[in-house]
UniProtKB/TrEMBL annotation:
Coiled coil: none annotated. This is Glyoxalase. Residues 10-127, 169-284 form the VOC domain. It comes from Priestia koreensis. Pfam families: Glyoxalase. It comes from the Bacteria.
Length: 285
C-alpha cells in the first residue's frame, strides 16, 4: 500500500450519490464489508478500520437514477492488503450470491468487479509486488486476462471473511471523461500525474511515483460525454491527497496554468476536471 501514502499523491475519500441510503448501507456493510464511521440524516461515511473515512454515500433530495453515457464514475477501486484477503472476499461474494460483473488478472494486480444497487462501479483488488511489474520505458505492462479464481480460492489461509481488513485503502479511481486530451492536460500538466499506460484513443492510466495507476481515464461513454445532472447517482467528489502543502501548492498553480479554477471551503481546495467531476485537494495528515 506504499503508493497510497506520502511521498505520493493518491486517491482518498470518495463521495457517492445513491437513490436509497438504507439499501446502499446494507450493501456496503453486508456485501463489501465496510463499517459505519459517521451517520447523518442523508449521508453515511464508511470505513474499513474504524478511523479513516474511505467512502461516503449520500441520498440527496430529489435524487435521480444513474444517467447513461455520461462523464463521471466508471468505478472506484478498493485495494486489499494481501492475496489471501482477496481470496476471502471472493469466497464471501460467491456465497452471498450477489452478481459479479467480472474478474481479471491485470499482471500488476488481480481484481473482482461488481456494481452497487445503483450501478456505481466497484473494483476490489490486490496488487502484485511492484518489483514484479514489467515496464517498457515509462509504460507499465498491463492486460486483462481471466482471473485464476480456482487458484485464488485456495489462498484463504483457512480464515473466514470478516469484512474489509485493516490496511484496506482506496487504491484508485477510474473515470469516464469527455476528452482524453483535455483530461491528460488537466491531470498531468495541471496536477502533476504521469502517463503510465495508453490504450490508443480510448483510455489512459496515470499515476505518481511509479504506481500502475491512481487514476484511469476513458472515453467509453463517448467523446463529448456530458456531465451528469447535479443530483443523479454517481460520484459527487473524490479526494486527491497530496504529501505536503508544497505539493498541493504546486498543483494549485498547475490547475491555474491549464485554465482550471479552484474554490476554497475551510481547509479543502475544490476543483473540477474538464468533464465536470469534482475533486477535493487535501494534504496528508
Amino acid at each position: 500500500m506504499k503508493f497510497q501514502r506520502p511521498p505520493h499523491t493518491y486517491v482518498g475519500h470518495t463521495h457517492l450519490l445513491v437513490q436509497d441510503l438504507q439499501r446502499s448501507l446494507a450493501f456496503y456493510q453486508d456485501i463489501i464489508g465496510f463499517s459505519v464511521l459517521e451517520e447523518q440524516t442523508n449521508q453515511i461515511t464508511l470505513t474499513a478500520e474504524g478511523q479513516t473515512a474511505l467512502l461516503t454515500i449520500e441520498q440527496p433530495d430529489e435524487v435521480t437514477a444513474k444517467e447513461p453515457r455520461r462523464a463521471g464514475l466508471y468505478h472506484f477501486a478498493i485495494l486489499l492488503p494481501t492475496r489471501a484477503d482477496l481470496a476471502r472476499a471472493l469466497v464471501h461474494l460467491l456465497k452471498s450470491g450477489y452478481p459479479l460483473q467480472g474478474a481479471s488478472d491485470h499482471l500488476v494486480s488481480e481484481a473482482i468487479y461488481l456494481a452497487d444497487p445503483d450501478g456505481n462501479g466497484i473494483e476490489i483488488y490486490r496488487d502484485r509486488d511492484d518489483h514484479d511489474w514489467q515496464w517498457q520505458g515509462d509504460q507499465v505492462e498491463m492486460t486483462t486476462a481471466p482471473l485464476d479464481a480456482e487458484g485464488l480460492l485456495t489462498e484463504t489461509e483457512g480464515a473466514e471473511w470478516n469484512g474489509l481488513p485493516k490496511g484496506t485503502v482506496m487504491g484508485h479511481i477510474h473515470l469516464h471523461v469527455a476528452s482524453l486530451q483535455e483530461a491528460q492536460t488537466f491531470y498531468c500538466d495541471g496536477l502533476g500525474f504521469n502517463v503510465v499506460a495508453e490504450y490508443g484513443s480510448q483510455a489512459l492510466f496515470i499515476s505518481t511515483g511509479g504506481y500502475h495507476h491512481h487514476i484511469g481515464l476513458n472515453v467509453w461513454n463517448g467523446i463529448g460525454a456530458p456531465t451528469p445532472s447535479q443530483n443523479s447517482v454517481g460520484v459527487k467528489w473524490f479526494q486527491l491527497v497530496f504529501p505536503t502543502e508544497e505539493a498541493r501548492s504546486t498543483a494549485l498553480k498547475g490547475i491555474e496554468a491549464v485554465g482550471g479554477s479552484v474554490t476554497v471551503e475551510g481547509d479543502t481546495f475544490i476543483t473540477s476536471d474538464p468533464s465536470g467531476t469534482h475533486i477535493h485537494l487535501v494534504v496528508h495528515h
